[in-house]
Amino acid sequence: MTDTLGVILAGGLSRRMGGGDKPMREIAGRTILQRVIDRLSPQCSNLILNANGDPARFTSFGLIVVADDVPDFAGPLAGILAALDWAALHRPETQWVVSAAADCPFLPRDLAAKFHAARAEEEAKLCVARSDGQTHPVIGLWSVSLRHDLRKALVEEDCRKIDRWTARHALATVDWPTMPLDPFFNANTPHDLAEAERLTAL
After folding, report:
1. CATH of span 4-199
2. Residue pLDDT, tens place only, 142-161
3. List of residues 6+ apart from 86 with CB closer than 8 A
4. Bond preceding residue 180 cis, omega within 30 of 0
5. How many helices, marked H, and strands, marked E, lie in the chain?
């Protein structure tokens, strides 16, 4: 396994779920966040959580909580930057960060492996996931070496759209099948939670 830091991105405002911590909602008796942890943790050498506000609310999950240091809820790129900076400071031997949204309870168990295979084959510094023709830019693999470039884009250029920034760099896109379910299904609304309950039975 390539030395890879995993980051679960939970820094959003959860507007479509009515606010609060969306990853703390339950699917079949287990929180979405715990399901993401269980899927991603075995694929990484270390795992952290990107979240803003009081980190104590996540104590029971046993993860280091890293907040954005770019103000005003700058979106997922701010969380990715926080993870890249954390890796550079605390795990300088780690050159790669794999990110996943905290509302994706069915993440593939080969996420990091397929990302690393693709970036090695294509000599890319970034990878993103795709399923059914749709890219999932927050599900990605990021080179720590790009952290200064990303900070400049966020702070100096106000570049908050992931696709706009990744287009500047060598990027690999990795496809996953959607049967029996889309592994990047995300629970954004109460209706999605009901659908996730159904999918857990598949």
Report:
1. 3.90.550.10
2. 999 999 999 999 999 999 99
3. 5, 48, 64, 66
4. yes
5. 6, 9
